[in-house]
Amino acid sequence: MAPRPSSYLIIGSGVFGASTAYHLIRRYPDASITLVDRDAFDATSRVAASWDWNKVVRADYADIKYCELALEAQDVWRTDPLWKPFFHQSGIYWISHTQFAQKVIDNYAKLGRRADLYSLPVEEARKLYGGIFDEADYTDVKEVLINNTSGWADASDALKKVIETSIEKGVKYVVAEVKALKVDDHGICHGVTTADGNILEATHTILSTGSFTTKLLEASAKVSGVKDLRAGDRIISAGVTTGLTRLSDEDLGKFSRMPVCIQENPPERGASNGTLPPNRDSQVKWWGQCIFKNTQEVLKDRFVSAPPDEPDYAEWKVPGSLKDDVNFANKATFGEKGELWNLEQYRICWEALTPSEDFIISPHSAASQLYVATCGSFHGWKFFPILGKYVLQMLDGKLAPDLKGRWAWDRELPDPSDLVVWPRKELEDM
Ligand SMILES: Cc1cc2nc3c(=O)[nH]c(=O)nc-3n(C[C@H](O)[C@H](O)[C@H](O)COP(=O)(O)OP(=O)(O)OC[C@H]3O[C@@H](n4cnc5c(N)ncnc54)[C@H](O)[C@@H]3O)c2cc1C
């Protein structure tokens, strides 16, 4: 008998799922590839962390592997006609109190990459860009890192375009809420069941469900009886708040050529905060420094962190203290210059984080034909053009050993207690 042709069911159309669909259809134009998401890909608001006004696209990493991967992604952002229109090489301004600048400079050198990249003392840095960052908080900071080859991308526009292109090439897009994986008594995953009672089947089921992954695996473990489907300590759902302001024409004149600014925080203040240059609607965006979880009883006696139950993850219902967290980021970056700005469109963005900040791109060890490709760990978006390439390598069993180990479902997990991005507070305490 001829082997059954491969079919692919990708759950979640954020950057991990969309990139996988795009790379799959380019390689297998005749294959059955279905991308499933609870939200339409062109909806005006989505729950995906990948759906956003803009995202930072940098290669400034202390970890040389992610530096290398980010440079690979940037090469695509800069040159490929599909991705290029969305990339803006604004440069980046890093305010860091650690040895981060030197590590980045060393990594570029080790990788043999030349870039307009340097660090300079705070007093000189303050004068750059017309002095827009001269009132920033430089506590314990000696040098600022400038990388003029980093920048940002129009996030939701790029996501929509890549999905549209994949659909044109033959990917089917289905709007449905996935309830559980369909795993049989032999531990084989055949697809998923949806909230409207449908069954979607494929020979490969790939979970790219971001912050919802923990909850979906709990439900799937209950329905199938395969307890090891659960994520356990591998993944935590965590949230960060963003907010925007629309600049006046006068301010636009001063800030239109600003770089991305990222500010590392002392541990007692939280993780980093950052701001992105004005988008096409003249809006500047910030993210706050507070990272939090939302532990809930998802099934009887089963507690995991997951986004709120509402269909939109209650992402626009932002408590005052989290609005203040974003307002604080404005003050820490621009000082009095931003005092009169009206911040608006606050949003909580939910993400899947691992204790090592590594992604998971791996077969799931508890069920065959089931794969996991998600966990951007607050830095996954910039790799959008190349994520699918690595997911295909994983499906083929051809991931390089170092990446296979790093991104494995079963890997040694470090103690996250020192990790600055690890959530320590609960949403309900905000
Ligand atoms: C505030 C914030 C700022 C960030 N900034 C940056 C940045 O500047 N640069 C950068 O590189 N990275 C950044 N990141 C990280 C980046 O956004 C994420 O790593 C990346 O978007 C995760 O992609 P994903 O595909 O795994 O998940 P998501 O984008 O969250 O997509 C998951 C999708 O799965 C769908 N889904 C889930 N469960 C179900 C279900 N049961 N049924 C149907 N559909 C389902 C959801 O609807 C969603 O569309 C940031 C993250 C946050 C939270």
UniProtKB/TrEMBL annotation:
<feature type="domain" description="FAD dependent oxidoreductase">
    <location>
        <begin position="8"/>
        <end position="218"/>
    </location>
</feature>
<dbReference type="GO" id="GO:0008115">
    <property type="term" value="F:sarcosine oxidase activity"/>
</dbReference>
<dbReference type="InterPro" id="IPR045170">
    <property type="entry name" value="MTOX"/>
</dbReference>
<dbReference type="InterPro" id="IPR036188">
    <property type="entry name" value="FAD/NAD-bd_sf"/>
</dbReference>
<protein>
    <recommendedName>
        <fullName>FAD dependent oxidoreductase domain-containing protein</fullName>
    </recommendedName>
</protein>
<dbReference type="GO" id="GO:0050660">
    <property type="term" value="F:flavin adenine dinucleotide binding"/>
</dbReference>
<keyword id="KW-0560">Oxidoreductase</keyword>
<dbReference type="InterPro" id="IPR006076">
    <property type="entry name" value="FAD-dep_OxRdtase"/>
</dbReference>
<dbReference type="GO" id="GO:0051698">
    <property type="term" value="F:saccharopine oxidase activity"/>
</dbReference>
<keyword id="KW-0274">FAD</keyword>
<comment type="similarity">
    <text>Belongs to the MSOX/MTOX family.</text>
</comment>
<dbReference type="Pfam" id="PF01266">
    <property type="entry name" value="DAO"/>
</dbReference>
<keyword id="KW-0285">Flavoprotein</keyword>
